[in-house]
Structures are given as C-alpha cells and as structure tokens.
Design brief:
The complex is a heterotrimer of chains A (198), B (639) and C (324).
Chain A: H1 2-20, H2 70-82, H3 85-89, H4 112-121, H5 136-147, H6 155-163, H7 172-195
Chain B: H1 13-32, E1 83-84, E2 97-104, E3 116-118, E4 121-125, E5 132-136, E6 144-148, E7 170-172, E8 175-180, E9 184-189, E10 195-200, H2 204-207, E11 216-218, E12 221-224, E13 236-241, E14 247-252, H3 257-260, H4 278-281, E15 299-302, E16 307-311, E17 332-336, E18 343-348, E19 364-370, E20 373-381, E21 386-391, E22 397-402, E23 409-412, E24 419-421, E25 432-436, E26 450-452, E27 457-463, E28 465-471, E29 485-491, E30 499-505, E31 510-517, E32 526-528, E33 532-536, E34 541-546, E35 552-557, E36 567-570, E37 576-581, H5 586-592, E38 604-610
Parallel strand pairs in B: 1-32
Antiparallel strand pairs in B: 2-38, 3-4, 4-5, 5-6, 7-8, 8-9, 9-10, 11-12, 12-13, 13-14, 15-16, 16-17, 17-18, 19-20, 20-21, 21-22, 23-24, 25-28, 26-27, 27-30, 28-29, 30-31, 32-33, 33-34, 34-35, 36-37, 37-38
Chain C: H1 27-56, H2 74-106, E1 114-121, E2 124-130, E3 138-141, E4 143-147, E5 152-158, E6 163-166, E7 174-176, E8 182-186, E9 192-198, E10 210-216, H3 218-229, H4 238-246, E11 274-275, E12 280-281, H5 284-292, H6 294-297, H7 310-320
Helix pairs in contact in C: 1-2, 4-7
Classes of the chains: A mainly alpha (198), B mainly beta (639), C alpha+beta (324).
Chain lengths: 198, 639, 324
C-alpha cells in the first residue's frame, strides 16, 4: 500500500518535472510573436524633411520580435561571424570595408525594420542581399545583434542595451557624436510623443 | 700629380708640398664645384642622372627615356625608378618651394595616384567613381580640357578591401588608359577624352573582384591585373590589345601550369619551385580556384631581356589553416614575356603566407656589382620586411636582409630562398598570437620606393607596426570577404613611431640613413636629379630631403594626409614643378584612423614651384581662367 | 559512392553494446571489465558462502553448554589474516592489471598513418581528414571511414560546448572541449559499421547526435578517400542554383560556390548511410522531410526552416541526390 503510494508519487513528480522543463538552446518553437515581414512598401519612403536615419513615423514600423532577447543577440553575434559580416563591418561593428554599425548616421536608417530591409534586400554599394540565403528568423536575430552595437536608432533602445553592458562606442569622438545625435533624437522623440505618434 | 715639375725650382720637400697644395687646391675646388642650376634652355637632363661621388655604384636603365619634363606612367620609367632627371629644384633652393596652384577633385576616398604630364597637358584619374580629367597647363587658371565620367557600378565600393582607390593612369600611343574599380579597363583618346575602348575583366557583384592597380603598356600590350585576395578572387594578369582592348592573353596566378603559363621555357631559381602543376598541388583539393594571389601592385619591364615583373597578393582565404601547403603562387613574383604571358621564372617570398604579407610590392630594376661581379638586378622591399636583391634574369636571391623590425622570421635561407619562420609567430586557429612584427600590411606596403642613379640608393616609406592576431575558420560566401583574420595593431619596439623614411643600399642590404615619423608614412617616393627625395606622411606633411645625407630640407603641411605618389614635371613655362595629391584613406585610415591627430579625408592636388611662381600668379592685377574648358565633374558627395 | 551493403553488421543485436569490442583500443578495457566483474562475483560468492555457512552451520552439542572461549582465540585471528591477505592480493592484481590496460590503450603500438580532426557541434560531427600531403585534406560529417587493422589518431575539439566522442565498439570516451584539442585513437580489426554517440550532455538534441564509423579493408578505404577528395561534378540542374543561393551560406559543396562552414559539408552527401547526425536514414523521403522542416525532427537545431516551396524542394533534393 505504502509502496504503491510511493510509486504513484514518483511518477507524478517526474511528470511535473518534465512539464516544468523548458527547451533551452536554439529554441524556435515555443510561444513567440508570429514573425512579421516588413512588407509595407511605405517603409522605403523617407518623409519630406526627415534626414535618413531619423525615426520614421509609420504605423507599420514593425518592432523586432527578438527585442530585448539576450539569447537572440548571442545567436545574432554567431551569425554575424558565420556570414562574414564581421570582415566587412569590423568586429563589434567598428567599420572596415563596410560602414561602422556602432556609430549613428546610417544612410538607410537604423530602425529594426530598416535594418531588416538592408540585410534582406542588400544595398547598392556592395551590401549583399541576404534574403535569398537567410530565413526571416535569422535576419531578425542579426537585427537584434546589430541593434546591440549601439549605432542603431531609436537611441533609446541602444542606450538600454548599452546600460546592460553591450558594446561600448569605439572612440571618444564617436561617443561625443552619438550623445549629440542622442539629444537631437530626444527632441524628435519628445515631439513624437506630443503628437501621439508611435 | 707629382711635385716633380717644381723639383728643380724649389729645394726642401716641405716647400715642394706647400707649392703642390697651393697649385692643386684651387684646381680641385673648381673641379668639385657643381654647375649652377641651368635655365630650362641649357638643361642637360642626362647629366643629372650621373652618379655622385660616394654612390653605391648601382645604376638603372631609364627607358623609355621620355622627355625629362614629362611623366607618362606612374613609375615614370619601365624600371620603376620614379627618378626624374630634372634639377632646377635642388638642395640649395628647395627651401623656396611654395604652393603654385591646387586642384580639388571633391572625392573623399583615399588618393593613391600620381598625375601624368604629357606635353602641356596634365591627366588625373580620381578614386571611385574614377573620373578622368585633362588639365591644360598652358593657360592661366589651368582650365579643364575635358572630363570623362565612366560611371562604374557602385557595388564595387563594398567589395574593395582597402578603400575605393585608384593607383593612376598610364599614357601611351595617344591614349589615356586606366582601370575602373568595378573590374574594367578603359582607354580614352588623350586629346578629346572620348573612349576608344572599354573592356570588362570581372564582376564585383558575382565574386567581389575589383581593380585598383595602374596598368602598364609594353609594346602593343596593356597589362591589367585584379584585386580581391580578401574575397577569394582568383588572381590573373591580363594583356589587352592597345588598339582594341581585346584580350591577348591571361595568365593566372594559381592552378595547373597551363593556366599559370608555366611551360618548357620556365626555370625557377630553386628546386622547390620547379615541379609539375605546383599552383594546384600546393593546395588542398581545388582550393586554388579561390586562391587569391591577385595582381594589384606594380609591373616593371626590362626592354633588354623583354621581361615584365609583377608580384602576387596573399593566397586566399587569409587564414592559412584552411589551405595547408605552400599555396603557390601567392605572395610571389613572376617574370613573364609581355607578348605571350609565358613565365620565365617565379619566386615565392612568403610560402604559405600566414600573415597576409602579399608579394605585390614594386620590383625596381637596377644594375650593380655584387660579389665583385656586375649583375642585372631586381630590388624588392617586400611586405614581409625583407629587402631582396635578386638576379632579374634568373630570380636567384643575392641579398635578403630585413629593412624593418621583424620577428616572424629570423632570416632567409640563402640556399633555398625560404624564410626561417619563427614558430611562436605562426597563426593559430582560435588562439591569439601576440606581437607579430610586421603587421599584415607589412614593413612596407604597395607605396612605391624610388631609386636615384645619382646616389645608387633606394628610398622608401616604411611602417613600424605589429599585430596581435587571432584566426577564425571562415566560410566562402561569394561576394563576402574570405578572410578570418581578427587583428589589432600597435607600434613595434619602444619608439612609439608608426612610420619611417629610409635610404637603403640595395647592393649590401643595409640602411644608409632613416628619418622616423610619428604617423604612418604611406606615400610613394620621388627622386630627382637635383638630389632631392620627396615623401609625404599620413598626417599631411610633404617633405623634401637631401638624397645624399637624409637631412630634411623643406616640409609643408597639406590639407589631408598623403598616401599618393609625388611626381615632378616641367611646365610649358619651362619651370620645374613638384606635384602630389592629398586625401588620406586606404589601409592607413583603417589602421590609424582612430588615433588622435589623424587627419580627415580630402582630395586636393598640390603643385609646388620655387617661390610659388607660375603663370597662375601675378604680382598685381587679376588673372582669369582662359579657354572655354570643360566643367568639373559633378556627382553626389558620397557620405 | 553508395554505402556498401555487403559489410557485415557488427557486434550484438543492440547498436551501442560496449562489451563487444573489435580493436586493440577497446579490447583490453573490455577484458579488464569482464575480469574485474568475475573477481567481484567470486568475492561476493565466497563471502556470501562464508556468511551463510557461518550463520547456518552451528555446532549444537548435546553434551552441555557451549565451551567457554579458549584464551588466545588463535583460530579467529587466522581467519582474519587469511582474509586480509587474499583481499590484498586480489586488489593488487586488479591494480596492476588496470594500470597495464591503461598503459596499453594510451597510445597505439604503431604510429598512426591517418589523423582525423573531429569537431563536435551542436548537434553534429565534423571530421577533417589530414593526410600526409597537403593536397589530400578534405572535410566530411557524421560518417567516418577508417581502414581496418591500422590505428587512426583522433584530434577532437568542439566548436561550442563540451561534447564527448564515443564509439563503444572501438574506443573509449574522449571529451571535446572548446579551445582544447584532446588526443585519442581507435582501431578496428574487423570490417563493419560501428555506431557512435555523443556522451556528454550538450543541449536539447544531445540524444540525437550519433555518428557511424565504417571500417573497411585498406583498398576499399583508399577508394572511398579518393572519391571524397574529388569535388562535386557541376550539373545544369535548377536545384544546384537554388542550393547555392539558399543553402550555400551554411553548407559547403566543393566544386560549387557553396562554401559555408556553419553546417556539415555536403560534397558527398549520398555516400553516407544516414543524415541529421545519424538519426534518419539517407533516403529521398527523409531528406525531403528534413529539409522541409528540420525543427520538427530536431527542434532547436541550428538549421532553420528553409521556407522552400514544393517545387524548389523537389529540385534541391534532386540535386542533392547527385552528390554521390
């Protein structure tokens, strides 16, 4: 009688443990927001008067589904090496053959959707079109890593990740540039909030 | 001269000696006097190529002996001496050198070329987008005669490893010929600027191939190489027909003998370089198809033996772990027949190059005595830090001594020509190897040295930079770098100086003197018949140095750093001018760009003359641009 | 080169039996295992017999009360002395035997002619064959071929976390540690197909990280090696173009522009018996299913859902079928 009770108890306990176990590494099957593709054609429009790189006021400015996901940032970093990004953009995005990713002032914009498009479609001065080779999930992970390098916009995201201990800026000059850009962006963000835009 | 003539006249030996001295001294002084700098009309150019007393004894064939006031190819002559016989400007008056006029091309990419002067026209080709200008030197205002905008494809900008540079045009047969970054070569009618032919040699969008080198014209052949050793591009030297631009022959740098054009007439100087299909068997599998060994440096030519000399880049990928073997024929030099491309001999400077040392540096052709015997020589200051003096008919190494501070090898085994590699400094996958000297760009990169037949010395700007290197396994993804090297640079030794200007004796392998510089020195060198050598620094100083003593006689700070090649010419007014382009970029910006004091980018041509005099200056009154010249090329400033 | 069907299956019915071994690297350890077990059984039996005998065999004397213990008790001490001596001798023999075995399996008797560099990834095995001449190096994955009767040196490392390389019939466990290269060796004296497995927990799909070692007579092995060295023949199939564009960033097929190193080298995929690191047979159905949705078969694997549509999938599989 007692032995039977013990046996049932063990089975239940094991079942409970199994249920509690979460898949750990490399998981892409548990509950995540559905992967949205930035198919909105208006994403390529730059509104009149807005310089490239300023946050766009678009209703379909898709956020990165891996926003704030440290595992995705780590996987993005592995992809950044494996896909040879590091040999064009420099380790930590410091810039080499391609432009630096750890400093602001991006020709094609630094919001998650804009970075996604740059990686997916390629760009005229030699950025390859990775949309052929990488599925959306992996591109979003790369976006997460690129955002963690500190040059992307909006700078609020960059600052948050920086505070959590991500890549520092390369030089004093670039840090000064960035804080100048930051205050300029903050002004815009304030205006956005006042307008109720998103 | 004996004192015998005066013997009977004077008695004691002391008095005789004094008399001899009194007679001889003025004679010797007069003989030793230099002739005053001649006016243009009485200049005798060949006299100013004569060796000075105390010279090393090395000389050079200055073929094709263009008119002394002209500069028709980047290296001035086939031997690549970069020596001009002009001597109006010399040690005595160079302190009077001032800016005569300037010309801006509006392009921020690195400037690595020299302008050409033919007759009274100056030709310039800019970095990407490779606009060509013809300037009329005969009219005040130096108006633009014509411009040509080739509109190369911008995809090339993201495939060029080391900035969107161009190392200059060549003038031949009434045509101005130059390469375009996106893998083309173009020939323009030099009078009108209209294209005569335009040939595509490769496609940067497909495999990352670009071209930055300056073609050389030998006879009816236009010799064009390629760039992309960092992209897995296969190295190839192409000869195009001067009239039509059609391909005459192509010689690859890797692969079976048929591709490399190694045939029965080939004989390498050492046993390990003679064998069948070494360009394939010294690689794993078919890795030679992406083997790099591109031809992006200088080509020299010896008319007497009818051989061209061209070096190859690092083998691909940059990390050596994925390509065990010697990796022939990367980091090597070829001697080829310019009419057929057939290789006569080849030598590999850095077998199984683990540090990206390349072998593309210029091969200066000189003649000199080694071991008491007069020999036909080739001087090559390699990226790997060794200054090689070789027999240019066979490739045999006669002298191989370090010209910079190095620790990757302890010397060259003179029996085989192979370096004695220091095992501590070999690259390791996944492990950081510290303080490898020199760094990947070597003790000296592509920036060309000059040779003065008057001193018999080689003059070069070199680096004092070392690296910490970690290698990573790398994928081949076409259009992306086939790289794997992760490195950080620092200065070598304790001086903290990144650059140095040296005078090198090619017959003994010794430095004659040197000038240390705080910043990298990455400019070409100009040697003149006035016994001056000119060089520039990456922080923007342009200097004139006494070629004999190494004393800096004149320095001028310019708008941006200098990574281009100085040249000198005679204007239509008979004056000697010295010209150099500013606009720092290239690997100098990659290595030192973040350092305090490193200049910003620019793109100006500076032309200097004594007192800044030229038809473009007038003491009083206004001058205007004459001639309805063409407008400057307009294009969007790239950010 | 198709997997030869004529090779005999190895060992006992279950694939991972470590008590049936087929080479000098594993045989001594197996013998020691059995030997120590026999000794242990003998000890247990002897001790049990003595205990039982001592408990059951009591001398019941009708003649009166138990005699008092005789002073001295020499009989009891003798038993202790005998027992200790036997135990010490047994342990000493076991020790010496163990150390001898360790010494014997530490390195092969002859210098290995072949070196294989094995890198553990999450969750597959990369193998780089190192020959004597530089022209003969090649990379393959998940299925190793070795010649019979010759030792093969193993240099194992890991690309990410700690795995452990184990082919029970041929060799012991060798951990693959990132940043380190561990040395091991193995030798198969009998031709056959031997299954291996990762034996250090390394993540979600640790259980699905198998490999196969095919031991062949040296002549057949050389033929296999020559075939592996050759690059894949170029085809005009549309599947090749799709493969190069969509798969080439992660996979290599020598002879094409696909040169990725994140995933296994597929130059001679069809010469392998299994795919996905030993968990699926290498046939069209499994291959198509794997490519269509790797996450369903091995959730968490680095290979993402490739989003190929039906037509593309058919064409890619048709191309892969040419990679013999």
């Amino acid at each position: 009688m007692a032995a039977r009770a013990i046996r049932i108890g063990c089975i239940l306990a094991l079942a409970g443990l199994a249920a509690a176990c979460k898949p750990a590494i490399g998981d892409s099957t548990t509950a995540r927001p559905p992967i949205a593709l930035p198919g909105d054609p208006t994403l390529s429009h730059v509104p009149m008067g807005a310089p490239p790189g300023s946050p766009l006021e678009l209703s379909t400015n898709i956020p990165n589904p891996y926003e704030g996901d440290a595992v995705a940032v780590a996987q993005g970093k592995a992809l950044f090496s494996a896909m040879n990004c590091v040999y064009c953009h420099g380790s930590g995005g410091s810039g080499l053959i391609g432009p630096p990713l750890n400093a602001p002032g991006w020709r094609y914009g630094g919001t998650p959707a804009q970075i996604y498009n740059s990686i997916h479609d390629g760009r005229p001065q030699g950025m390859p079109a990775w949309g052929e080779s990488l599925p959306p999930d992996q591109i979003w992970k790369l976006v997460a890593y690129v955002e963690s390098l500190g040059g992307a916009s909006p700078p609020a995201t960059a600052k948050t990740v920086q505070a959590a201990g991500a890549q520092p800026s390369a030089t004093g000059e670039q840090a000064a540039e960035q804080s100048k850009a930051d205050s300029a962006h903050e002004g815009l963000v304030e205006a956005d909030k006042a307008n109720g835009g998103g | 001269m004996s004192a015998g003539a005066t013997r009977r006249a004077v008695g004691s030996p002391r008095a005789r000696a004094a008399a001899a001295a009194i007679i001889l001294t003025p004679v010797l002084l007069l003989a030793g006097c230099h002739k005053p700098a001649p006016q243009a009309s009485e200049q005798t150019p060949m006299a100013s190529a004569q060796p000075l007393a105390g010279a090393t004894g090395a000389s050079a064939d200055l073929s094709p002996n263009d008119p002394p006031g002209e500069w028709r190819r980047q290296a001035r002559d086939y031997a690549n001496t970069r020596f001009s016989p002009l001597n109006q400007i010399g040690a005595a008056n160079v302190a009077r050198l001032k800016i005569a006029w300037t010309f801006s091309d509006g392009i921020p990419y690195g400037h690595e070329a020299a302008p050409l002067v033919v007759g009274s026209t100056m030709f310039l080709v800019t970095p990407f987008p490779n606009v060509a200008y013809a300037l009329d030197l005969s009219k005040p205002g130096i108006p633009i005669k014509w411009t040509y905008q080739p509109n190369p494809r911008p995809v090339a900008v993201g495939k060029a490893c080391c900035d969107a540079v161009n190392r200059g045009p060549v003038y031949a047969d009434g045509k101005l010929i130059f390469s375009l970054l996106d893998g083309e070569a173009v020939a323009l009618n030099a009078d009108t600027g209209k294209p005569v032919w335009r040939t595509r040699l490769g496609d940067p969008a497909r495999d990352g191939m670009t071209i930055t080198m300056s073609p050389l014209v030998v006879g009816k052949a236009v010799l064009v190489g390629d760039s992309g050793g960092e992209m897995g591009v296969r190295g190839v030297l192409t000869a195009l027909d001067l009239e039509t631009g059609k391909t005459l022959w192509r010689a690859y740098s890797t692969g079976p003998d048929a591709d490399v054009k190694i045939g029965p007439g080939f004989r390498a100087p050492y046993a390990w370089l003679n064998g069948k299909d070494l360009g394939a068997t010294s690689w794993p599998g078919d890795a030679w198809k992406r083997g790099g060994a591109t031809i992006w440096g200088w080509i020299s030519y010896d008319p007497a033996s009818n051989l061209i000399y061209a070096g190859t880049s690092n083998p691909s990928p940059r990390v050596p772990a994925q390509r065990p073997g010697d990796n022939l024929w990367g980091s090597a030099v070829f001697a080829r027949d310019p009419a057929t491309g057939d290789a006569k001999w080849a030598f590999q400077f850095t077998p199984h190059d683990q540090w990206d040392y390349d072998g593309v540096n210029e091969n200066v052709l000189i003649d000199g005595a080694i071991g008491g015997q007069s020999r036909k020589l080739l001087v090559h200051l390699d990226r790997n830090g060794f200054g090689y003096t070789m027999d240019r008919t066979t490739g045999q190494i006669l002298v191989a001594k370090p010209f910079g501070a190095i620790n990757w090898a302890s010397g060259i085994d003179m029996r085989t020509g192979r370096p004695i590699v220091n095992a501590d400094k070999e690259a390791k996958l996944g492990e950081k190897v510290e303080d490898i000297c020199p760094t990947h760009i070597g003790s000296k990169d592509w920036q060309p040295s000059a040779f003065s037949p008057r001193t018999g010395l080689i003059y070069a700007t070199i680096f004092n930079i070392c690296m910490d290197l970690t290698d990573h396994k790398v994928a081949y993804i076409p259009g992306t770098p086939y790289d794997g090297m992760d490195l950080q640079t620092h200065t070598g030794g304790k001086t903290g100086k990144w650059g140095e200007f040296i005078a090198w004796n090619p017959l003994t392998g010794q430095r004659a003197w040197s000038i240390p510089e705080n910043f990298m020195t990455m400019s070409g060198v100009l040697a003149t018949g006035g016994d001056l050598v000119f060089y520039g620094t990456t922080d923007g100083w342009f200097r004139a140095v006494d070629a004999r003593t190494g004393k800096v006689l004149w320095s001028q700070k310019l708008s941006s750093g200098i990574t281009s090649q100085p040249m000198t010419f005679l204007g239509p007014d008979g004056r000697q001018y010295v010209a150099v382009e500013t606009g720092v970029g290239g690997v100098a910006s990659q290595v030192m760009g973040a350092k305090n004091g490193f200049p910003s980018r620019g793109g100006d041509l500076y032309v200097f003359s004594l007192d800044g005099a030229s038809p473009n200056t007038k003491a009083a009154g206004m001058l205007t641009t004459q001639g309805a010249g063409a407008p400057a090329a307009h294009f969007n400033a790239p950010d | 080169m198709a997997a030869p069907a004529s090779l005999p299956a190895s060992g006992p019915a279950w694939p991972m039996g470590y008590l049936a071994t087929f080479g000098p690297r594993a045989d001594p350890a197996t013998a020691l295992t059995w030997g120590l077990m026999d000794i242990s059984i003998a000890v247990v039996v002897i001790v049990t017999v003595l205990v039982v005998a001592g408990a059951l065999l009591r001398r019941v004397s009708a003649r009166g009360p138990m005699p008092a213990a005789s002073p001295g008790g020499k009989g009891g001490l003798a038993w202790i002395a005998i027992g200790c001596a036997l135990t010490t001798a047994t342990l000493l023999i076991s020790l010496v035997w163990t150390v001898q075995v360790l010494a014997r399996i530490d390195s092969p008797a002859t210098k290995p002619g072949l070196t294989i560099e094995i890198t553990g990834h999450q969750w597959w095995w990369e193998a780089r064959y190192q020959p004597d001449q530089p022209g003969g190096a090649f990379t393959t994955a998940n299925e190793l071929h070795i010649p019979t009767g010759q030792p093969v040196r193993l240099k194992v490392t890991s690309a990410d976390v700690i795995h452990s390389f184990w082919v029970p019939a041929l060799t012991g466990k060798t951990d693959t540690i990132p940043g380190r290269v561990n040395l091991g060796w193995m030798q198969a004296d009998r031709a056959g197909v031997y299954r291996g497995q990762c034996t250090e927990y390394c993540g979600e799909e640790h259980a699905k990280m198998a490999l196969y070692v095919v031991a062949e007579p040296p002549a057949r092995f050389d033929a296999w090696r020559q075939a592996e060295l050759a690059p894949a023949a170029a085809t005009a199939l549309p599947g090749q173009t799709i493969f190069e564009a969509r798969c080439g960033a992660c996979h290599s097929v020598r002879g094409t522009s696909a040169g990725g190193v994140v995933g296994p080298d597929l130059t001679h995929l069809m010469s392998r018996r299994t795919i996905a690191s030993g968990i699926l047979p290498n046939d069209v159905a499994s291959l198509s299913g794997w490519i269509a949705n790797p996450q369903a078969l091995k959730p968490g694997a680095a290979m993402p859902a490739t989003n190929l549509n039906g037509a593309e999938l058919t064409q890619v599989v048709a191309y892969l079928e040419t990679l013999k």
